[in-house]
């Protein structure tokens, strides 16, 4: 059997040295479904927030390491938020163009599901990809999330977008989120 990049995916805790990966994610191509590129100052703020999540209480961000050399393939993580009056984890991810199409995002999201489940803090993990982002919606489906419907969300502040609300029950250890 041929080995795929998705078989060699690991999560590395977000570190000070990962800022350049965040800069790579700030391209028009990578932010097309997120309101476009951010300013350098906003990226620095985001980087600081990601670093601040490493205590595990407010979530966690990771660099996606792929292949035998652990190349930086993208970003994935989860953080605390309130949605529909419920405290939840929200997940987000992005894979840089040269690593897209190899199942890396799906593998990384399934790994993050396991991390969120181990926190045992919230029952649900949600993801809110744009309805116009078939790749991220496919990742949700393959990772075992259930589509609850569409809604309008403000992200980033001042930019409204139509999103799908995908939810995964973290207490269901035999079903959703355990697919390979």
Automatic annotation (TrEMBL):
Cellular-component GO terms for this entry: cytoplasm
Domain N-acetyltransferase: 9-166
PROSITE patterns: GNAT (PS51186)
Molecular function GO labels: protein-N-terminal-alanine acetyltransferase activity
Keywords of the record: Acyltransferase, Transferase
Family classification: Belongs to the acetyltransferase family. RimJ subfamily.
Name of the protein: GCN5 family acetyltransferase
The organism of origin for this protein: Streptomyces alboflavus
